[in-house]
Automatic annotation (TrEMBL):
Its EC number is 3.1.3.1. It holds the Pfam family DUF7800. Keywords: Hydrolase. Residues 174-214, 567-604 are annotated as: Disordered. This is Alkaline phosphatase D family protein. CDD domains: MPP_PhoD. It comes from the Bacteria. It comes from Nocardiopsis mangrovi. It is an enzyme of class 3 (hydrolase). Residues 213-503 form the PhoD-like phosphatase metallophosphatase domain. Residues 4-88 form the DUF7800 domain. GO terms for molecular function: alkaline phosphatase activity. The lineage of its organism: Bacteria, Bacillati, Actinomycetota, Actinomycetes, Streptosporangiales.
Length: 604
């Protein structure tokens, strides 16, 4: 029996003339991707017994929408026989057309059962897949249009909050003969006196996973990550969506573990666990294979030293990838995960705010590290219509949360004495005070750069600077301005757009708590605390102008010349579904009711 597709195909990085297709197969083989006139092929490479291929079609016409098929050793593997979905299309960029960018974060894969919908809400990525399939079949609403790009900006998987079927897989995987074992614990190299003296004496979560054995409800080994990605992306509707919409990604903490790299104290505590070295190596390596490779253009992939070594490895490349992943964790400057994507006259910066953090010294933390900071500063320039800065974590939080995080960082650094550093660290972990605002040096560096762009100090000012974010499990729009006296007048719109979650709705009790973050009184208290701890006033001032919205959502950002508009699609009540025919004669399926409120004009 020949090889087959285990996962994919996934349409990833595209330009006006190229398109990258990623697949996982169930055995070594030759993979070929073909349209009517263009063909690309690649042999699979192997990591921990899993087999992958990345094929890049070249010489494509700009603005094309071309049906394609995937062949494995000359046998057609995609589209699947008798598929009821419309053909998967390669869609290249038309730089002269409006860009329609879908984005969101925080996606828990579920079975869409009544129980799952009641807990997590409807899956907005699946809902959009059904809507797009209708559109492709000529059944969509008149105001729908094809997406140019899908940005998944964090928590594409939940490695530490797994579903029952994944927990059953872990149990079976770990008790089979020859099951892998976790490597021993390692300390964090280069600990300084400052990072050692935080006053904490508790592990980060104090969860009952045992002193030595891996937790039974979290993935640890590469095989387990591979299965988790399969669960996340093999849902038929979502699989079709990812096969036909160009998709770029960036990780957040749950792709690895909650609070990942929140502080130096956290890193030391987690490193004491015997299974952590295996977990972090597996998680970073799996992210590189499943998410990061497809983010790269063909030229960048060819220049990537890790890919060069893995692709030509004689046999299984696991030792190569594991060594890379371990070093990427030990040394944040070893590898740059951030990247740039240009579409039309707009620039999208996908910014890593997790793996590249420099938290070795808790008194001098940065969210990007020195190299990441320098890279981002070089990219934040004018000369474009729209500058989009996408990171998993919102840059501009509701003000009360922003001030609380700024205060907490100062306290953890010793602003109110050494004896409060330990309680400050405990509070940071308990309520997730780890966004841009908790890294004030990084926050001010980017804020000052954006103010300079808006003032024309870094080239012709763009029509907008748009921050995209996720993570917080509610969505909102915040409009910002440069404070009076900080810079000359400008017409550049500065806006924070947050879309979270796509499928992992916040429980009602937490919704009520987070609503306090948007109140003026809470913001004032936070501001007083932050100033008392010595936090600097931001160069930007901002206010919420939409939201917070707590339903599962998917956002659509349209960039048309100097004009920009955004809208959020919501699933307002997970109990309300209807049964109707699926696209192109698909079997009847329960569909979520999705509301599409009017858009918010940002510029133009």
């Amino acid at each position: 029996m020949g090889a087959g597709l285990r996962l994919g195909p996934m349409l990833r990085h595209v330009t006006d003339t190229t398109a990258t297709i990623w697949v996982e197969t169930d055995s070594p083989c030759r993979v070929t991707v073909a349209t009517s006139w263009h063909t690309a092929g690649a042999d699979t490479f192997t990591v921990h017994g899993h087999h992958y291929a990345v094929c890049e079609l070249t010489g494509l016409p700009p603005g094309a929408m071309l049906p394609y098929e995937v062949r494995i050793d000359d046998a057609v593997a995609w589209p699947e026989p008798d598929s009821a979905y419309p053909p998967s299309l390669v869609r290249t960029v038309d730089h002269d057309a409006p860009a329609r960018i879908m984005f969101g974060s925080c996606h828990t894969s579920t079975d869409h059962s009544a129980r799952a919908v009641a807990r997590y809400g409807v899956d907005m990525l699946r809902a959009y897949a059904l809507r797009l399939a209708d559109l492709r079949c000529g059944e969509g609403a008149a105001d729908d249009s094809e997406p140019s790009l899908l940005l998944l900006i964090g928590d594409q998987i939940y490695a530490d909050e797994i579903q029952p079927r994944m927990k059953a897989f872990l149990a079976e995987h770990r008790r089979r003969p020859g099951a892998p074992k976790a490597t021993g614990a390692t300390g964090t190299p280069g600990a300084t006196d400052a990072e050692a003296d935080t006053g904490t004496d508790a592990a980060p979560d104090a969860d009952a996973d045992g002193a030595d054995g891996p937790p039974d409800d979290e993935v640890v080994f590469f095989d387990e990550y591979a299965e988790l990605y399969r669960h996340a992306w093999s849902d038929p509707d979502l699989r079709w969506l990812l096969s036909t919409v160009p998709t770029l990604m960036m990780f957040d903490d749950h792709d690895i573990r909650d609070d990942w790299n929140t502080s130096g104290a956290w890193r030391r505590d987690i490193a004491a666990r015997a299974w952590w070295r295996t977990r972090i190596t597996s998680g970073i390596g799996a992210y590189w294979v499943y998410q990061h490779l497809g983010n790269l253009s063909g030229d960048l992939r060819a220049a990537d030293p890790v890919f060069a070594d893995v692709a030509i490895a004689d046999g299984d490349a696991a030792p190569i990838l594991d060594a890379f992943a371990a070093r990427a964790d030990d040394d944040p400057a070893h590898y740059l995960w951030s990247y740039r994507y240009d579409i039309g006259r707009s620039r999208i910066l996908m910014v890593d705010t997790r793996c590249g953090r420099d938290v070795a010294d808790d008194t001098r933390r940065t969210i990007l590290g020195a190299d990441g900071t320098a890279w981002l500063d070089r990219q934040v320039t004018g000369g474009v219509d729209h500058l989009v800065v996408a990171s998993s974590l919102p840059f501009l939080l509701p003000k009360a949360v922003h001030h609380l995080e700024a205060w907490n960082e100062a306290v953890c650094a010793g602003a109110w004495g050494r004896w409060l550093r330990g309680p400050g660290e405990k509070l940071r972990r308990e309520v997730d005070l780890e966004h841009w605002a908790a890294f004030q040096t990084s926050f001010h560096a980017l804020g000052d750069a954006v103010a300079g762009v808006a003032a024309g100090e870094r080239g012709e000012p763009p029509a907008s600077v748009l921050f995209l974010g996720g993570d917080v499990h509610f969505s909102y729009l915040a409009r910002a301005r440069v404070r009076a006296g900080e810079a000359r007048g400008t017409g550049t719109a500065i806006v924070q757009l947050v879309c979270s979650p796509t499928c992992n709705r916040m429980p009602p009790v937490l919704r009520r708590i987070t609503r306090l973050a948007t109140s003026a009184a809470t913001a004032l208290v936070g501001a007083v605390l932050a100033r008392a701890a010595g936090a600097r006033r931001p160069v930007l001032d901002w206010r919420l102008d939409g939201g917070p919205w707590y339903d599962n959502s998917l956002a659509a950002l349209t960039l048309d010349g100097r004009a920009a508009e955004v809208s959020w699609s919501h699933s307002p009540d997970p109990r309300h579904t209807v049964s109707e025919e699926g696209p192109a004669g698909l079997a009847p399926t329960a569909r979520p009711v999705v509301t599409r409120p009017g858009g918010h004009r940002l510029t133009g």
